[in-house]
Amino acid sequence: MREIVTLQCPVCKNRNYSTTKNKKTTTGRLEFSKFCNACRKHTDHKETK
Questions:
Q1: Alpha helices for 1-49 (secondary structure H)
Q2: Facing residues of 35 across strands?
Q3: Confidence at residue 1, expressed as pLDDT on a 0 to 100 scale
Q4: Which pTM was predicted?
Q5: Which domain holds residue 33?
């Protein structure tokens, strides 16, 4: 079953993106390089609770 997770910028702490993941196959936290509008640059957005 896929669950919705939120991605947060580590620099400014903005929660900019949401995505889905399969909790059975992906047990760790997701991390994507995404563009942050507040920082105006690409940062490694990490999954939050």
A1: none
A2: 42
A3: 87
A4: 0.84
A5: 1-46
